[in-house]
Structures are given as structure tokens and as C-alpha cells.
Amino acid sequence: MHSPKSKNYYKTLGVNPSATVQEIKTAYRNLAKKYHPDVNPGNKICEEKFKEIGEAYDILGNHESRKKYDLSNGYNVNKHSAPKQKKEQAKQAYNHQKTTDTQKTKDPEKEKGFFSDLLGGMFKGEAEEEKKKASSKSKKEDPPKSKKQKPIKGEDIYTDVTISAAESHNGTVRKINILHTEKCKKCDGKRLINDLPCMTCEGNGELTTHKKLNVKIPAGVKNNSKIKISGEGNKGINGGENGDLYLVVKVQKSTLFKFDKNDVTCEIPITPSEAALGAEFKVPTTDGSVVIKIPPETVSGQKFRLIAQGLKDSKTNKKGDQFVIVKIEIPKNLTKQEKELYHELAEAREYNPRESLFDE
Ligand SMILES: [Zn+2]
């Protein structure tokens, strides 16, 4: 019935498909004045609008071309002051037209319904504006009586949030940035200001905005689990409730810590001299670091217990322990001097740690 390419000239001029010749003329004159390049030098949006307005008026301003346009787009033909019941048809066509005009989607099937309703709502908004105007001017035909638009819930938003293994055990709070749609405050979601498309939202009635949220991620959260934040998705349509926001939690695997309930174990390298002489050094914990002291003659694999440095139990609030297993690591690329010193050490004591192995 109508090609998806054809533009909605009525919308461009901000008039109803049943507008009179005079109404179209007036709308064109007002818009042309507003968007004229001389008035808005260098403004690309205005320039584009001005062109669109001219194109729309070329068609709708001429009886013959308007008739053709109406015919090929399913508008109520001939009578441009149509009786009421016909206007419903015109509205349907108008709405349908918009759905075919709009394209920006991941899921065409779903989006079609979405935009159809969204734009149906737009028509309603325009009709209401018309009503206001009519009552203030006291003239004018009745606006088309639109059926009550079905409220539609806004789209849900999914966003990933990555947390450490320790955070997944302990729970954490994350500040996240989301992009979602909100009602345009400039036109209060009505899409039109003084019968002209709202420039802030470009007549959409909604804006895509950034929002910062503090989200509590509970203890014990598993990789890929979803946290629902109600009402923070995209804006609902026709008074429908907002969509929801889902955080998809990605838990990083820890290369350092191993978890056993609330106890944490990690392996920490030490040097031969630290092992021999004892040392004091910092070790990481799941929520910071702590200084530990190892005694002289510490052996490789020795385990040290750091009391209450493990994870907090979400029910009892009691903390588990952290176990530190030390591993002696020999530095690589020994210098000549280091080698000499190791020789000296070897000579200083005749020590064979494997001696007893052959006693049995
Ligand atoms: Zn707006």
C-alpha cells in the first residue's frame, strides 16, 4: 500500500493528515521562518529541517500532488476535512507510516511493535496539542479521537560488571554508568512545544541519558549471575512502566587466592636469604595487605596463618583466616659475585640435606 521509503510529510509540517490547505500553508510558513538558514547560520540540523519542510510543502501544498501522495500512502483521500470516523483510518495509516519510516534496531520484529506503539503515542500527543490549541483558539474541527494507547513496558538493559574473586565472596558495591532513555524534561515527554517538534528531543519525547548508579553486589555471587535493578531500564511507552536494568556479573578468576569457605590461601615467594635469616614483608589480602614476619630458618612450603584476614561470613560477620605458604625462589641470572658467595656458603658448612635418605 505504501512504500517504506516515502516520508511522512504531515509529520514534517506538524499537521494532521486532515489539515486544511490553509493550515498546511500556515504550518509551512511558521516552520520555514523558524528553520531558515539565514536565521540559523551554520546549523546543520536547521538546514536539514528547512529542506525537509520545503520538500513536504512541495507535495502537500499542491492539491494534485497531495492527492497522489495521500493515495499512495493510504491517507484519507479527497476530503481534507474528513468526517470523524474516517480519521481513525487516517491515524492508522499515519501510525503505520511511521513504523516503516523508522529504522534502528536489533530485533526488527520486536522493534516494529515498539515503534508502532511509540509513534502511536506520538500521534496522541499531537492530537492533544491540537485539542489545546483548538480550545484556546475556539475555532477548528475536532481532533481525531485516538483510542487509548496500550501502555508498554520499556526495554530491559543488560550491562556487564566485572568483579574480583574476593569481591564475589565478600560482596561489594559498584558505581556503574548506564545509558537509558528518560522522558524529555523540556517538552515533558509531549514531543511538541507550541505545535513544533521539541528541539531538545527532536520530537521523540524522550532522551538517551547517562546515569550513575551505586549497585550492591551481594556476597557469594556466581559468575554470570544477573542482578535486577527494577525500573532503571528504558522508559516505558504510553505510561507503561520502565524496563529493568540487569547487571551481568563477571567474576575474575584469582591467580593468587584459593578459597575454602571463608578461608583464603595464597603462595608467596621468598628469597633464600629471607628463608635463612627471617624477614618481614607485606602480603596481599583479599581486601588490602598485611605485614607478616617469618622467622629465621623458615623452610620452603611452610604455612603461616593470619587470623581473621580471610573473608567475612555473610551471616555471622565472622572473618575466616588467610594462610600464607612461602616458597623459596632462587634469583635468576646470578652475578659472578653472587656465585662466589654461594660457594663460600657451601664451604662454610658441610651440609647434605639428602644424607638421611640412604640410611634406611
Ligand atoms: Zn522534548
Provide a descriptive summary of the structure in words:
The protein has 360 residues and is of the alpha+beta class. It has helices at 9-13, 21-35, 44-60, 63-72, 84-101, 108-137, 165-170, 272-277, 336-348; strands at residues 157-163, 172-183, 192-193, 196-197, 206-217, 226-229, 245-251, 257-260, 263-270, 279-285, 288-294, 303-306, 322-328. The chain folds into 3 domains: 9-137, Helix Hairpins (Orthogonal Bundle); 157-251, HSP40/DNAj peptide-binding domain, CATH 2.60.260.20; 257-358, Urease metallochaperone UreE, N-terminal domain (HSP40/DNAj peptide-binding domain, Sandwich). Helices cover 33% and strands 23% of the residues. The strands form 5 sheets. A 4-stranded mixed beta sheet has the order 8-9-13-12. It has a 3-stranded mixed beta sheet with strand order 1-7-6. A hairpin with a 2-residue loop joins strand 10 and strand 11 (288-294). Helix 2 (21-35) runs antiparallel to helix 3 and helix 5 crosses helix 6. The protein is elongated. Residues 81-143 have low confidence and may be disordered. The structure holds zinc ion. Zinc ion is lined by residues 184, 186-187, 198, 200-201, 205. The site of zinc ion has 7 residues, from loops.
Quick structural summary:
This protein is α+β, with helices and mostly antiparallel strands and 360 residues long.
Number of helices: 9
Mean pLDDT: 79
CATH architectural type of the largest domain:
Orthogonal Bundle
How many DSSP E strands? 13
How far is it from the N-terminal to the C-terminal residue, by CA? 99 Å
State the order of secondary-structure elements, H for helix, E for strand: HHHHHHEHEEEEEEEEHEEEEH
What is the CATH third-level topology name of the largest domain?
Answer: Helix Hairpins
Given helix and strand content, the structural type is alpha+beta
The CATH class of the largest domain is identified as: Mainly Alpha
Oligomer: single chain
User: Into which percent range does the helicity of residues fall?
Assistant: 25-40%
Poorly predicted residue ranges? 81-143
Shape: elongated
Q: Could you tell me which ligands this complex binds, including any ions or cofactors?
A: zinc ion
Q: What is the count of structural domains? A: 3
Rounded to an integer in angstroms, the radius of gyration calculated over CA atoms is 36 Å
CATH level 4 superfamily of the largest domain:
DnaJ domain
Share of residues in strands: 15-25%
Query: How are the strands ordered across the major sheet?
Result: 8-9-13-12
For the biggest sheet, the summary is:
4 strands, mixed
